[in-house]
Predict the structure.
Amino acid sequence: MDHTLEPSPFLAGRRGEACDAIVRLAANATLARALRAGACIAVQSGRLWVTQTGDANDYFVDAGQRHVIVRSGRVVIEGCTPQASFRLLRDAPPARPGFP
C-alpha cells in the first residue's frame, strides 16, 4: 500500500525549496516534492529509496549517507525500513578530504 505524506506546514510553505527539517517516514510511506538541483537528502536513520523524474536510476540511501539532487524536478522518497529519518538540506555540504 502506498502512503503519501503531506509535508508539514513548515515544509509546505516553501514549495520548491529544501529546508533543514527532520522528516520521518514509516516503512512504505512516501514523500513527493519538487527539489532544486544541489539539494541534499541526508539520511539520519534507516534506509530510503529515492527516484526522480527524468533519471532512469533509483537510489537506496542508508543511514549516514547522503544523496545530492543533480537536476531540479520532482523527487519521490520512500521509507524502506520500519522508520527512516532524514534531513532535506538546501545545498549539499562540501566534501571533506577522505570522505565521500
Summary: The chain has one helix and nine strands. Residues 86 and 98 are 23 Å apart (CA to CA).
